[in-house]
Amino acid sequence: MVGNYFRIAWRHIMANKTFSFISIFGLSLSVTVFLLITQYAIFELRFDRFHSRANCIYRVNAITYSDRQIVSNSALSSYSLKQTMDGRFPEIVNSVRLISTRSWFDCTLKYDEGSKAVIFNEHNLYYTDASVLSIFSLPLRYGNAQALAKPYTAVLSESVARRYFGNEYPIGKTLHLKGSFEESDYTVTGVIEDIPADSHIEADIFLSINSLEHNPYVDNFDAYTYIQISPSVNMEDFTDRFNALVSKYLPSDNKTFIKFSLQPITEIHLYSSLQDEMKPGGNAKSIYFLILVAFSILLIAWINYINLATAQSIARAKEVGIRKVSGATRGQLVNQFLAESVIINLLSATLAFLAVFFLSSFFYTLAGFTVSYDRFISAGIYDIALLTLIVFCFGVFAAGFYPARIISSYNPVLVLKGKFNGKNNTGLTLRKTLVVFQFTCAIGLTIAVLTFKQQFEFMQRQDLGIDIARTVIVKAPSLIDSSFADRLRNFKSSLATKSVISGVTTSSAIPGDKIEWTGNVRIDRNSRAQTSFVINVVDNDFISTYKLKLLSGRDFTVSDFPLKKFGDKTESVILNKAAIQLLGIATPEEAIGLEIYWGDDKCKVVGVIDDFHQQSLEIALQPILFTANSGPRLSLKFGEAVNTNNLKASIAVIQKEWRSFFPDDPFDYFFLEDHYATQYADDAQIANIFQLFCGIAIIISGLGLFGLSFFMVRQRMKEMGIRKILGASVVNLITILTTEFVWLIILASCLAVPLAYLGITQWLQHFAFHMDLTAWIFVCPVLLFMGIGFITIGFQTFKAANVNPVKILKHE
């Protein structure tokens, strides 16, 4: 019996290829989108959950208060915090520190085999405790859990080990580290599997933290501190006791103190926006919004299937009547039509699953994500398969049951007497409601896409207030020794003589960087009122190289550089416009010669520059204090004559000079415009995804409109025949039928526009600088869908209106 249902269902599907294709195409497309988004959402939501103790691991974040105001909220805590808390809290099972070398300067590692030397700049290098291998789930390929117990030992990731040693056995190999505060040899004692992409910890190399015991700067270091807590601990109570006890051992005064928060490791990626994060996190709201969009597209497709199935119901009315007269029960008819739903949904789900499996990499590349097949696996192939099964079952019974019930309810007497016309006010109202709903979703999504695109373009075309074009950033040598300043000065002088170079400067932060160094500034040394500024160390060529606008005063000169130690004299500083406004200074001219205090060091303002966008336009303009010295980031400005044709030769000129002055350091460079653009990578990804989904929503909504218009035209064939006999033209008939659909689209627009306005207005508030909303952003999507409606309905009506009315009335 069941087999018979499916054989008949398959024959019907093959006999109605157009409707079958539209149904399968729409469903498979929407399910593919749903699975792709869900796959990405699973990846994002599972960040750091691969650790076996993930639910018990917390990061200790430090909140600094001054005069009861928060001046910093950082993911970093002090180096000494671990010693302070170890042994004092029985609830803490384990703890570990990670100290990033990026907070100083990049390091180089060199493996000298004798016949050849391998050297690389390393950015993801951390000093850490031996407990890092026990608190986190980092499977060892070589070595054991005590690999970092001794000083000057190193644990590498597999990819780094291959980069230095190829296929050689790595244990016991020696790597020479050259950094800003250290030059030492490290012995490789362990190799771990590469840390998964769904980890907020981005580390390739771990060095024993015991190597820093005799480092004179160790007390100034900040660390990412993690603790493992017993599962049964009440975290709110423990956090209070933790702060109460730890605060006794930390330096503080009546004005400044630190409070700690304990953040679950599983919440860091999506729910943390603290200063000093290891790497940029995700956005939970964006993830949940994408999931909502995915469900909306899936719902639109199911609505289309319902409308297309009911559109066919009139043509199948006689079939239903004959079956009922022949003794078929309503339940048997429902089962028959559900069998068709099973086949269509099964084909759609299978095609969607295969599309996700084979096209994931293409989709993520199109969206702007860096992915591989491994990412699909990490997102959980079994989860995707389970979701496909759930979508299939829901599609069969939710989307298939209603059409089956409608079709099986036809009165066989009316059908066989030719008096059945398929009119059902309840069913028709529901179908129109469903079309209004799907067009509301589609119009709203289109408005959102236009807004995202316009805001993205707005940020890209704004004047940054700083010239970053034709600028190459070269990473300064890792070891800043006594000869560094002279070599760097000579290197700059040598480059200045090259015709391809128009400017050379150094700084601690470059445009596009988040300036991590902050300091409290006040006008009166004894005042309790102080303001947090970001600090950028620049040389005397920074302003001219980047073409910053000097509002008053002068640029730095070599004489402004500190003596042996910063603060040995009254230091010269330059402020930006936002900084003097924050200090309550009315004009740039009034700031010149003003003495201010950065911490306990007296400084004199020698210049004021106009504001510029250090970071993206999502970030408000920051108060910046510039102090004079040589920084670790070397900026080289190419002249106007340099273009894509001679760029390679120009880079070669710089590289040759580099090797003359810094032969032991790798030449590592990147273009500043590319670096600055990475700030908008997430926005570009969202824009690409929404454009893709907008196109899909338009296609699926068009299919739905096609189905409903087909249904309504078939219903009104007799009316059209009579009107045509009475003298109505084709244009009259098209106008009569399209008017009803136009009202449906207008109703959908009335719902979509205010909802979209509320959503995008709230979204734009996240940007410090954003576009102004204009009417065309709302009008264009409405006109677009009006056009789609006219074309779709007009095509159906035109075909029906050209049918001979005699033929219509004969059959009706």
TrEMBL record:
The keyword tRNA-binding is annotated on this UniProt entry: no
MF annotations from Gene Ontology: transmembrane transporter activity
Membrane topology summary: Multi-pass membrane protein
Protein name per its UniProtKB record: Putative ABC transport system permease protein
Record domain MacB-like periplasmic core: where: 20-244
Superkingdom, natural source: Bacteria
Any one Pfam family match given in the protein's UniProt record, by short name: FtsX
Record InterPro entries: ABC3_permease_C, MacB_PCD, Macrolide_Exporter_MacB
Localization: Cell membrane
Ranges of residues in domain ABC3 transporter permease C-terminal: 292-410, 693-805
GO cellular component entries: plasma membrane
Chief location category: membrane
Positions in coiled-coil regions: none
Keywords: Cell membrane, Membrane, Transmembrane, Transmembrane helix
